[in-house]
Each structure stands twice: as C-alpha cells, then as structure tokens.
Amino acid sequence: MPKILDRYLLREIVLPFFLWLLLLTFVLIMPPILQNAEQLIAKGVAWPIVLRVLLTLVPQALGITIPMALLLGILIGLGRLSADREFVALQACGVSIFRVMRPIVVLSLAACAATAHVMIVALPNANQTFRNITFNVIASKAESDIKPRVFFDQFPNRVLYVRDVPPSGGWRDVFLADATRSGETTAYFAKQGRLNVDRAKQTVELVLEQGTRHTTFANKPEDYEGSSFDRLVLNMDAETVFPRTQLMKGDNEKTIAELRATAAENAQHGAPTGSQYFTIQQKFSIPIACLVLALIGVALGVSNRKDGKLAGFVVGIGVIFVYYVLLWTSRAGAISGRLWPAFAPWIANVVLGIVGVGLVIWRAGSADQPIRISVPTFWRSRRDAPATLVDGSRSGAGTRRVVLVIRVPHMDLPRPTLLDLYVSREYLRVFVLSFVSLVGLFYISTFIDLADKLFRGTATSGMLLRYFYWQTPQYVYYIIPLAALVATLVTMGLLTKNSELIVMRACGISLYRSALPILVFAVVFSGVLFMLEEQVLANSNRQAQRLNAVIRGWPVQTFGVLDRRWIVGTGGDIYHYELFNPAVNQFSRLSMFHVDHAAWRLDSLTYAKDVSLVRQPGDSAQPSLTWVAHQGWMRELKTARRHNRVETVVNYQAFAERPVSLEPPKFFNTPEPDAERMTYGELKRYVTELQASGYSVVAYMVQLQRKVAFPFVTVIMTLLALPFAVTTGRRGALYGIGIGIVMAIVYWIALSVFAALGAGGAMSPVLAAWAPNILFSAAAAVMLLTVRT
After folding, report:
1. Euclidean distance between CA atoms 274 and 133, whole angstroms
2. How confident is the model over 248-292, as pLDDT tens digits?
3. Between 20 and 30 A from 600 (CA), which of 217, 292, 431, 774?
4. Burial class (CB in 10 A: 0-12, 13-18, 19+), 300
5. Highest mean pLDDT pick, 263-277, 372-386, 658-672
6. Cross-strand bridge partners of residue 633
C-alpha cells in the first residue's frame, strides 16, 4: 500500500510538472530564441551551430522555471485529487498530510539538486559558451553583415556602400567614404571589393580593385587630390569585428571560486563586493526554494474542494510573484549595503518557509476546510434587504404588484443553442485561466528583468507600471493564440474523456457542429489580433521602447533610419549631411555625389554649407518650392583623351547661392521602419520609400507579410487542435496541454526559421511569412478529413 500510494502521488504530480516546465521554459526563452535564431540563420550559420547556440539559452531559464513548475505541478496534481474526493478516502484510511508529503519531499529534493546543478555548474558554462560561439560567428560572418544597397557605418569614421553582392562572393560597385584624417574626406569608387578577416591575427583588410580616389579638404575647398588604382588594401578597425580580444565574464558567468576571487580583488581596491557575495548565496538559495515552494504547494493543494486541477494556476503564479519580489527586494538591499549580502538571498526562503510550515500544520488539523481570508463586509446583500416601492414604503408579504406584460413579435433569428452555450462556457473557462496565468508569467519575468533598475533607483515604480501598461498589448498579442490552443485541446479533450462527444454523435450532432462555437471564438480572436496590430501595437510598442530605454539608461533614438546622414536618392545619387531639420526643411553641410552608374565613377561633387527649401515664383504666376544651396562649391570630373591617354579634367566652381535638385522633404524625414512599431499601411509605405532610396527591404517585406499572416494563427491552431483533442482526449486534459505546448513550440520555431530564410534571401518574402500557416493548415485539413466525426 505505501509504495502504491507513493507511485500514485508522483504520477499525478510529475506529468503536470514536466508539462509546465516545458511551457514556462519555452515562454521565457522564446524572445531570445526568435532574436538569435533569425540573425544566425540569416547570416548563413550552419544548423548544428544554431542549435548549439539555442541550447545554451536553456539553463538561464531552467534556474527560474524548475521551482515554478514544481509548485504548479504540486498544486495541479493535488488539486485533481481534491476535486475527485480522493483525499476523503485517504483520510478515512488514516493517511495524514505528513504521509502524503513523503513522495513530494523526494521529488522536491530531486528538483533542488537539478536546480543546484543548473545554478552552480550549467548556467556559468552555458552563458560563457553562448558568448564564445556568437563571438566566433560574428567574426567569421563579418562580410555577410554588409548588405547590398545598405550603408554600413560600423567602421569608425568610414561608411561603406555596396551596390551588388554576387553569389560567388565579394562585392561589385563599391563606395567608401573615409574621414579618418581630420579635415579631409576621401571617397573611393571601385568596381570590385571584398573584406579579408583573419581571426587568428584579428586583423581586417578592405580590398578595392579597379577604382578611383577623390580627396577634398574642409579648410581648402579649392584643393583636390584624385587618382586611380588597380588594387588598394585598407586596414580597417578590427575592434568593429572583434569587439574584445578577451571576453569578460559577468557575475552570472562566473563560478563560485571566480566570484570569491573577484570579491577579494574588489575589496583590495575599495570597490563594492555585495553583488558577488549575493550571487554566491543565490546559487544555493534558489535550489532550496524548491523545498519551500513544495511546502506551500502541499498546504494549498491538500483539501476537499471541488475546483479541480486547473484552479492551481492563479494561486501558483501569485506565490511565485511574492517569492521573486522578496528575492529582488533583498538583492537591492544587499547591493546598496542595507542588508548583509550573505543573508539577503535567504530572506524570501525564510519568510515563505515560515508561512509554509504554518500552513502545513494548520492543514494537518483541518484538512476539510479551505484556507480563507476574511474580509469585513460593510454592506448588506440586496436579497436580504426589503424592496422599496416608488412612494418610499417597504414592500410586505401582502403588497400587491402590478405586472406590465409587453408582447413582441416572434422573430426566428439564429441564436446559440444549449449545446453552444455549454461548449462555450467550458472553452472560455479554460481560456481565461490559461490567459491569466500566461500574462502573470510575463509580468513576473519582466519584473525579474527590471527589478534591479527599480531597486537601484534608476527607475521609479510609476515608470515601471507605465512600462507594464504599454507592454501589455504585445504580451496579449502573443498569448491569445497560445491560450486559444490550450483551451481548444482541454475543452475537446474533456468532452472526449467524459464520453460527451459520443452522446452528441448518437443524437446526430457531428464533431464539426459540436466545435462550431470554438471555431467562432477562434475567428473572433483573429479579429482581435488584427485590431491590436492595426490600432494598438504601433503606438504602445513605441511608448514601451521609449520607457525601456529610459529605465535601462539607453540613449533614446530621436531620428529614423532614413535620417542617418547617408542616403541614396531615387536617381541613384548619394547624399551626406550633418543635420536635417524637418521643421524648416533645412540641411546643414550637405554633400551630393553625382554618380555615373554605368561606369561606376564620380561625375561631380557638390557641397553646400546649408540647403533650404524656399518658395519662388514659377510659371503662370504659380509659386513653386525649390531647394537652394548656400555658400558652397561644385567640382565636375570629366574624362578627356589627350596624347592617346584618357585623363580626368576637374572643373571647380564656388558659389554663394544656387538651386539644386533634391527629393521632396518627406523623403528625408520618415519614421523608423520597425515592424513592431508600425501598422501595415505605415510599413507598406515605408518599404516603398526604402526601395526608392536604395535600401535592402527583404527583411521588411517579410515583416509586412507576417502582419497579415500571423493573426490567422488562432484559426489554424484551433483547426489543428480539434482532431488532436479527439484522438488523445481520453488520456486527460493535461495530455492535451502537453500536445498544445509542443505544437506551439513547433509553430514558433517554423515562424522564426522561415522568417530568417526570407530575410536571408533564400525564399520570397511572401512565402517565408505564410509558409508556417500553409504547412499547419495542410496538416489540419488532412487530420480533420480522417478523424471520426
């Protein structure tokens, strides 16, 4: 009997534990996976290296998710036993709560050991491995960062522009502006070029072939130096490609011995040591939190209530939130010197441990009673108060009432049936629970990420609340599809497990008709995603990014991508300016490179101290807007044949004022083309302007198509979940949740992979954005046609 009970309890807890561990880990590492995977795949990195990089991101999430999943697993597993009255049978057999705790303690010790291994061994190694791999990838793929028709300005005081990148490697039609020498600007136009990166010596060389060189001087504009070359090698700044000759470890990348050595070194130089000592103790306190959370989980899970295993979601999320608030509050106190760093990480364990022990002791003496918190009531229920008539008198037993009956014409309109209401109620119940739990998880992870800024004083609580407010729509945008998927699987799985679908079929109701309310909700949720995309996300993401930059101390970007001082005009000319003021439409220090595109050489160079848009009289007395340059010069370069040799003739002209031909002002003043901060219409217009200005728009085209494709995910996932739920429903709702988690992971990986392939030019942007939907829709169609309806 004891061994059977132990196995039974472990089986009920282990399954939800692993399911929630998978879900929580996936949710936490999803943003870095999407970001890093797309970048690495777009760079052409081999798949084994990409998988290795992504695996190194897992330990940083496991240190948080193992204790969280343990608590949720205990609450859900014991909640199921409570709902089915199995604890009543156990109590009747003399099984106490302390006997129930025995297998749970064993499981908690295993989770504690796993978390300790992650925190002490795996996390430092994984973080450092991730940085080493990405470092080497960046170094080996430096040339691939230079895209055709995109200005590359990462080299200090140098700007590189390539018009074409052939598949065989290298570049064609290269432009380089070099301002490394004070007071001089040299422009290179070359037919071919390439970047030679030596990782061993950490040197970077730019090789240009078959080109010309043009040097002008700021203090002597009349002076000019020009020449041609067959091959030219320029030494570039290696720090741009190799950021550091040695990767420095942060506290999380260090072992305990390294942390102690760092603390000793800081103490010798009078530097603070609180962060190192706190991190050392945190490597032990977080694993011990598994035991503390297990105590609370047992106390809250063992009862005779009827609310079932899904009711543990909100309770578990609340306990986890309290734990991390205490942990990061103590961290702030340790770093600031108000708390002893060696004890601060244990405060959360001590507080919640005392609460857990008290709850377990209380539960051992009153297992039949739920834990309640009494709230004073200052009002009476309306049902208990006597009704008041119009004249102010109280209604009594003998009071006569006048009933007004209004007959309306009968209208036979489509309305939900009793079956629709029943399925809808079950679906919405699971959807709301999943939605609230996942939103809470995002809040907890974001608070953990930003709590240090709050406790250090670089951010206020009001600023953090505003950031949560503006960031919530983006959370909701990603959570709605996952919650809809889980709700579909659980609802249909429960109907299958309880044989309710069989009864429906016996009554002539097919699976398609039974699932109609769920499909309607899926369509509604797709509409909500469309509305969020077009009406909410653009503004909320801009505000969230601004607040995030302020909280983290990053510089807030005040100009768009096109307002970056280098730009290609619609005719192919290259412009460079120090400043553009959109309020008065005025340039400061504008240079215009007029290029012969067939020969790829410089035809003329015009410079003006300032250029403004002025109104001048035009034809038929109609005024026109004209760009006028002031205090500048123009240098024309023409080829002439002399003595059987081609020479370049330079014609220099200075001017005080002259009209110049430029694009309209809006061409130079456009908002930043970030897909997450633009609506579909804004991004579409911007892509058109980017194409006209010579920029590569492949990645933006993928994002544009994804804005239309992604909202359909709720319908597609629902169609795919229906046959899965019917075929696997008899194994339980948690089995359906597990299937849903796997499906979501596969979909998001496919979304990331195809987006990276599209951004890298391996497939068309339209196909890259719609490929996940097409593949999952085809799978759903096949399964729906083969499942018994």
Report:
1. 30
2. 455 666 788 888 888 888 888 877 787 788 888 888 998 999 999
3. 217
4. buried
5. 263-277
6. 607, 654
Reported as a pLDDT band with limits 50, 70 and 90, residue 304 is low
Residue 187 and residue 176 in contact, taking contact as beta carbons nearer than 8 Å: yes
Residue with structure tokens 């597609």? Answer: 716
Mean pLDDT over 68-91 rounds to: 79
CA–CA distance, 346 with 340 (Å, rounded to integer): 11
Local confidence band at 30 (pLDDT 50, 70, 90 cut-offs): low
Q: Which residues pair with 677 in a beta bridge?
A: none
pTM: 0.58
Q: Compute the half-sphere exposure of residue 620: CA atoms within 13 Å on the CB side of its CA.
A: 0
Mean pLDDT for the stretch of residues 363-392: 50
Q: How far apart are CA 103 and CA 73, in angstroms?
A: 13
Instruction: List the 203-217 sheet strands across, edge first.
Output: 158-164, 171-178, 184-198, 203-217, 224-235
Give every CB contact of residue 128 below 8 A, 6+ residues apart in sequence: 247, 249, 253
**Residue 209 near residue 189 (C-beta atoms within 8 A):** no
CA distance 309 to 732: 12
Q: At 757, list the tokens.
A: 């392939």
Q: Which two tokens stand for residue 361?
A: 């002791």
Using DSSP, state whether 397 is helix, strand or coil: coil
Over residues 200-246, the pLDDT tens digits come to 666 778 899 999 999 999 888 888 888 889 999 888 765 555 444 34
Long-range pairs for 662-667: beta carbons < 8 A, 24 or more residues apart: 662/569, 662/575, 662/592, 662/611, 662/627, 663/569, 663/570, 665/582, 665/585, 665/613, 667/562, 667/569, 667/570, 667/692, 667/693
With a CB cutoff of 8 Å and minimum separation 6, the contacts of 732 are 493, 497
Maximum Cα interatomic distance, the chain, rounded to a whole number of Å: 126
Weakest mean pLDDT among 29-33, 197-201, 368-372, 471-475 = 368-372
Stated as kind and residue range, the H or E segment containing 698 is helix 698-709
Torsion angle, alpha carbons of 246, 247, 253, 254, to 10: 20
pLDDT for residue 555: 47
Q: How high is the mean pLDDT of the chain?
A: 77
Which is more confidently placed, 264 or 454?
264
Q: Quick one: pLDDT at residue 40?
A: 66
What is the distance between the terminal CA atoms of the chain, rounded to a whole angstrom?
Answer: 43
DSSP designation for 26: H
Asked if residues 615 and 585 have their Cβ atoms less than 8 Å apart, the reply is: no
Amino acid making up residue 49:
I
Name the phi and psi angles at 508, rounded to 5: 85, 15
What does the pLDDT average to over 636-648?
71
The pLDDT assigned to 243 comes to 46
Place of tokens 């601060």: 344
Q: Measure the CA–CA gap between 564 and 546, rounded to whole angstroms.
A: 19
- The residue whose two tokens read 């570049």 is 171
Distance, CA of 279 to CA of 251 (rounded, Å): 7
pLDDT band at 520 (very low <50, low <70, confident <90, very high): very high
- Is 328 or 629 the better-scoring residue by pLDDT? 629
Per the CB < 8 A criterion, the answer to whether 238 and 298 are in contact is no
Give SS3 for 583: coil
Helix axes 97-117, 2-42, angle to 10 degrees: 30
Q: Which of 440, 441, 518 minimizes the C-alpha distance to 724?
A: 518
241, amino acid identity = V
Q: Which residues contact 650 (CB under 8 A, 6 or more apart)?
A: 224, 226, 635, 636, 637
d(CA 187, CA 193): 14
Q: How many CB atoms lie within 10 A of CB 527?
A: 12
Instruction: Return the bridge partners of 184, or none.
Output: 217
Residue 395 has pLDDT above 60, yes or no: no
| CA 268, 273, 279, 281 torsion-angle sign | positive
Q: Which two tokens stand for residue 24?
A: 């929580």
